[in-house]
Amino acid sequence: MPEHHDTHRTRDSLATRWLGLGLAACLSVVTLGLAVTGRLGLYINPDSTWFAVGMAVLTLIGVAASFMLPLGAEEDHGHDHGDHDTDAAHHPRRPLARVATAVGGTIATVVVLGALALPPASLSPQLAASRDVGTAPLFGGADTVALAVSGDTSEFGVGDWASVFASATDPGAFEGEPVELTGFVGAREDGGFALTRLVITHCVIDAQTATVPVVADAPPVDGQWVTVRGSIREGAGGMEIVAAEVTPIEEPAEPYEY
Question: What is the mean pLDDT of the chain?
Answer without folding.
Answer: 75
